[in-house]
Amino acid sequence: MGALTLTNVAKSFGSTDVIKGVDLQVNDGEFCVFVGPSGCGKSTLLRMIAGLEDVSGGDVKIDGVRINDLAPAKREIAMVFQSYALYPHLSVRDNMGLALKQAGVPKAEITQATDKAAAMLSLGALMERRPAELSGGQRQRVAIGRAIVRTPKLFLFDEPLSNLDAALRVQTRIEIARLHRELGATMIYVTHDQVEAMTLADKIVVLRAGKVEQVGRPMDLYNDPDNTFVAGFIGSPQMNFLKSGALGLQSDTLGIRPEHLRLSRGAGQIPGRVSHVEKLGGETLVYVNTDTHGLLTVRLFGEHQYEVDEAVGLEIDQSRAFHFDAAGQRLR
Amino acid sequence: MSQARHSPARSIAAHAILILYTVIALFPVFVIVINSFKSRRAIFADPLALPTPGNFDLVGYQTVLAQGDFFQYFLNSLTVTVGSLFFVLLFGAMAAFALSEYRFKGNTLMGLYLALGIMIPIRLGTVAILQLMVASGLVNTLTALVLVYTAQGIPLAVFILSEFMRSVSADLKNAGRIDGLSEYTIFFRLVLPLVRPAMATVAVFTMIPIWNDLWFPLILAPSEATKTVTLGAQVFIGQFVTNWNAVLAALSLAILPVLVLYLVFSRQLIRGITAGAVK
Description:
heterodimer, A: Rossmann fold, CATH 2.40.50.140, 2 domains, five-stranded antiparallel β-sheet, 19 strands, 26% helix, globular, B: 14 helices, ABC-type maltose transporter activity (chain A), transport (chain A), ATP binding (chain A), Sugar ABC transporter ATP-binding protein (chain A)
């Protein structure tokens, strides 16, 4: 069990409001990702759920029980940190067992729990080592193991992959997804990387400046964004935003994803010149400079040959275009 | 920086300056030590000469060990130094932890107030301190000295340690909180071991002035039972006659314990001083 409910949760440091009334429901067993640019308050929100920051207003509930004033250790949560935060003076086994030891669990049970977690993460050979003797990836696996051992109601991840290199990041991401399937536990995961959010989440919460911009499943956010911020934040490369007026449309802004722009040589609906080409093998990204809309990105699948400064025309797939008003809100 | 490390000319120049400074700094100590092994006549005849078999004389050490209770003086100095050091490190580290870790009203102000002690010499308050000690019946006790030296050492300790504690990973402390460690356990088991180099730095900077101090032992605890080594050595300095052999021998002996303590802390000390430069 581990359903999390946030009701009008707020946080302020002095006169600065960091979290401005967040309402959120995370169901039992759900993988929920908080995503947003740096400084949007996603880490602060996570730390409030953990009890590391006190809540200035509103209620934080786990399984319907208000935990606002409960000490972190009593909340039945476990947290994995970006910097691993392993205890340098303890062996891997003791690192993983410390919370249970603090809770007064018998030694045999602790050994059983740590062995089980170690087996899940293939840490068996490292159990007697100190954190200083481990590589970054191993340390993060130990940190995840330390969280598993506690069998918490809620797993909290604070940018756990940011300190790993690209290859390890993908590998650990898959491992976390696998753990979520095996454990069936509720997980809350903070990241600034929308790829991590898209690949891991059942539910994505997009935050900006302490407010929730949109909540939904990854593909809902991708295919049905509420505003220009979410539209621009989810998806890589970023959505193109064009001036509707110049296209003879009613709305203020037209959003179109790079894969939904058609590129043709010579003149087209929107004339422009190629400013840069990125060939990635599986796809080709063409950056086109236009007079009215600025720099637009076109994503072509497969390999394509375009020269810099070549004159090209762009065509909009109107069925895939999004329309926004002057305040950035979606017009449906 | 890397230039200096690679160019031999610069390296030689830097070492020459450092060696010169070392020679200047150590020269008085050297003179004290060599003269402590010479006869009185030889000290005055040629103070800079090394002891030779002809003028080698341990009379100074014999006097020191025979007269007065020098062993007791040593013990007093050691008690006061170690005691003060313990309290300075304990309370200094605790205050530093509170200032660096907790957000509360007046945090910055409190930090400034504690740092003020670095700039204002405690000796300005001697008269008031003496009155305080007389009123509380602590005159001629080692407790009086420990209290004063603790007060004297805390500002620098707080100042240095709070900077280092700020650099200890917040995630680590938070991980401890989530695992159910008390704030005291976090402080003693997680944070203190990580700031050990800084603690050694503070220990050395605190210890030496305490060991060498003459002022407060003379004013607060001049009795025979509570004399410190520096005060004890003054016995041999008279208004008309000074027993130089004994003074020099006493001073030479007084170097030893502090040297031992320094060697204990020095490895950590060097790491503490260079922490900012290397990391």
